[in-house]
Design brief:
The protein is built from seven helices and two strands; from the N terminus they run αααααββαα. It is mainly α and 213 residues long.
Length: 213
């Protein structure tokens, strides 16, 4: 053969307009589009899951006598849904008239920006969620009994809203810890749900970049 298979792949991919190797170009076009389509479907499903989960949480917390916590969680999730819909809409606006390489690079750029936007909100979401749960725990009947037991063991006259100061210090400390590691928590959650597809996207981009050398 006058050309190696590897060279044919390189020529075909770099010179897409000349269609030296149309099958290879078509393969990467379909592969990149399949990954993008799957991620977009997963993002859309996640939005529906957030909406459904918030309604389920509202019902469950109402049934156990904590309706305000259910409403509070729903309110925290509203901005998340709005952000998710806005960001997903941006992904659909990416031009598909570009080469498969340019398109997948643009999609990856959008993805990284979108992740940064989500991370920015989660810095507030996780601490606020913890605060809501802590407040509900303190004002609940079970929480009142626990506080009573703590007061018997560690009595103190320094109370704020009927809560001993050392318990408040513990809660504040936990809130700061949650805030400090909110980005890590978000990225862990992200990796659990989308990690496999993100890896495929990275591998595809790496293959394309190698062929363009």
């Amino acid at each position: 053969m006058s050309k190696s298979i590897e060279q044919m792949w390189k020529d075909g991919f770099v010179n897409e307009t000349q269609l030296t190797a149309p099958k290879i170009n078509d393969l990467y076009n379909r592969k990149s589009q399949n990954i993008v389509d799957k991620l977009q479907r997963m993002f859309a499903i996640n939005i529906k899951a957030i909406i459904g989960g918030s309604l389920v949480a509202l019902v469950m917390f109402s049934l156990i006598g904590a309706p305000f916590l259910g409403v509070y969680i729903c309110l925290l999730l509203v901005p998340l849904v709005l952000i998710a819909k806005r960001e997903l809409g941006k992904s659909y606006q990416l031009s598909k008239g570009l080469s498969s390489y340019d398109y997948i690079i643009n999609f990856n750029d959008w993805l990284q920006h979108s992740i940064a936007v989500y991370a920015g909100y989660y810095k507030y979401f996780y601490p606020l969620l913890f605060i809501g749960m802590a407040v509900q725990a303190v004002v609940s009947d079970a929480g009142g009994k626990i506080i009573g037991l703590m007061m018997d063991v560690w009595p103190t006259e320094f109370l704020l809203w009927g809560v001993p100061y050392y318990l408040l210090l513990i809660i504040v400390g936990l809130i700061l810890i949650v805030a400090r590691f909110s980005d890590a928590l978000y990225r862990l959650d992200l990796n659990i749900i989308y990690g496999r597809q993100f890896k495929k996207l990275e591998e595809l981009i790496a293959d394309m970049q190698e062929l363009r050398k």
